[in-house]
Amino acid sequence: MATRAQPPSASRPQPAASLAPADAPLSDGRRKAAILLLALGEHAAAKLCAELSDRDITNLAIGFADLGRLDASEVEKLIDEFATHVSLSLAA
Predict the structure, then answer these.
(1) Does the pLDDT value for residue 40 go beyond 80?
(2) pTM score, two decimals?
(3) Environment class of residue 63 by beta-carbon count within 10 Å: exposed (0-12), middle (13-18) or buried (19+)?
(4) Looking at residue 4, what is its pLDDT?
């Protein structure tokens, strides 16, 4: 007996690229924050999290839940982006 395959959208969640444009920046920000927090290490991340609001912690938790597999080049690119942003902010 042959079974019909379900369409891909019915069997697995939609990729982040399919988010509505209004949701994409928030999702991207959550992902970036979660990756940076991981890159900081446990001690520094704990100190930072102690200063965050409940809402920020919730957003980070969502970011962590959506991370999936990380590529080292993605992490390096994000750290470079963050360092550039901080440098430009300090120079202003």
Answers:
(1) yes
(2) 0.66
(3) buried
(4) 52
